Amino acid sequence: MTSRSKEAIASRLAEARRRTLELIAPLDDEQLNRVYSPLLSPLAWDLGHIANFEELWLVQTIGGREPLHGDLGRFYDAIENPRRTRGELPILRDAELRSYLADVRERTLDVLEDVEIGPDVEDRLLRDGFVYEMLIAHEQQHNETMLQLLQMVEGYEVSRGVGHLSPGQASGTILIEGGSYEIGAPANGFAYDNERPRHTVELASFEIDRTPVANAAYIAYMEDTGAEPPMHWERDPEGWVLTTAGRRVPVDPSHPVLHVSWHEADSFARWAGKRLPTEHEWEAARDELAGVGQVWEWTSSDFLAYPGFEPFPYREYSAVFFGATYKVLRGGSWATARNVMRPSFRNWDLPERRQIFAGIRCARDVSAERASEIAGDDERERAKREGCV
Ligand code: AVJ
Ligand code: FE
């Protein structure tokens, strides 16, 4: 690979790091070490884990070098150390943590100088710079997890880039005609193992909302059913308020609803006479959807392997999570790096979890009547083309 593309990798690694450091810049060491919730890691753990993951792949695996802190890496293993235990671990903190981040990065750039990363290299980790793309995405994904926690830090300024859903837009539904659809990431280019292999699925016709569900609709549902408000909402005499970062800001009825669990999303959809889309439906409709990238969208799908799945480069990214325990989310939120958002990207979480930036988009089966109307339209179209009408 040319030195220019190595420079591009180095500058994208630097860009991701700049964002990480910018997120924690207003915080002191005590805040980095504090456990705000048993469901979320202390920020110091995320930071050390980001550096340790980089050291493991870009320095030890690619560069063949020894780790800087012996077997410290075992405390940063996400599977071995559940979130509720992370506050107690003997992880790096304060000045030592900051130098670890910097020292690993220095070694990473050293190693990068000597590697081959062209399209034809034998090693799949290096081919087209796969392992570097993985590391950039990993840091960006942890930035989003960090933002979940940062919302709980008193006075923290979170710049939420959530757009409004105009009422007209919100009411629209899109009809997606049944047929064969290609699902998953193409064989080339960076994607996680769980997005592959690309394969064909058959879908029946369905309708899907043009935009995610707005707060106004969710409030109507709460009032009708007595359902709990989303996480971070409280009731004031004047109405619902958002309490993130210790503030009290009126809930904007036109914003997409955020911080609901899969169970809540599913109940809302039923109440509205609709259902959640499957992840295949979501991907098939992807190009027609508005508001993608504001909130993660719960789907009705379990997180399962695609037919022919192969773990790469490590089982703990996807394979250990496959099964009916986790539900898939699609799209991306205001806190998701644009680099991470691919039409084929699959996020997943437990159905009871609300701390991720998740909202709702509803779908609906097309009635048999409507379906035959569509088929009839097709029939007439073809007849027209063939000159029979
Ligand atoms: C894709 C968000 C479910 O946080 O568990 C980060 C991403 N994997 N480090 C997670 C991930 C390893 C993953 N999710
Ligand atoms: Fe991670």
Characterise the protein shown here.
The chain is of the alpha+beta class. It contains ten helices and twelve strands. The protein has helices at residues 3-24, 29-33, 43-61, 94-114, 130-150, 167-171, 215-225, 262-271, 279-285, 368-385; strands at residues 173-176, 179-183, 199-203, 206-209, 233-236, 239-242, 249-250, 296-303, 323-331, 347-349, 358-359, 363-365. The strands form four sheets. The protein has a four-stranded mixed beta sheet. Strand 6 (239-242) and strand 7 (249-250) form a beta hairpin. Helix 3 (43-61) runs parallel beside helix 4 (94-114) and helix 3 (43-61) packs antiparallel against helix 5 (130-150). The longest helix has 22 residues, at 3-24. The chain is globular and about 70 Å long. 32% of the residues are buried. The chain binds N,N,N-trimethyl-histidine and fe (iii) ion (FE). Residues 49, 53, 78, 138, 142 line the site of fe (iii) ion.
The total strand number stands at 12
Q: Which sheet architecture does the biggest sheet show?
A: 4 strands, mixed
What is the succession of H and E elements?
A: HHHHHHEEEEHEEEHHEEEEEH
What ligand species are in this complex? N,N,N-trimethyl-histidine, fe (iii) ion
Shape: globular
Strand-residue fraction?
Answer: 5-15%
Give the C-alpha Rg: 23 Å
Uncertain segments are: none
User: How confident overall, as mean pLDDT?
Assistant: 94
Helix-and-strand structural type:
alpha+beta
Strand order of the largest sheet: 10-9-8-11
> Helix content range of the residues, please?
25-40%
Tally of contiguous helical segments = 10
Distance between the termini: 59 Å
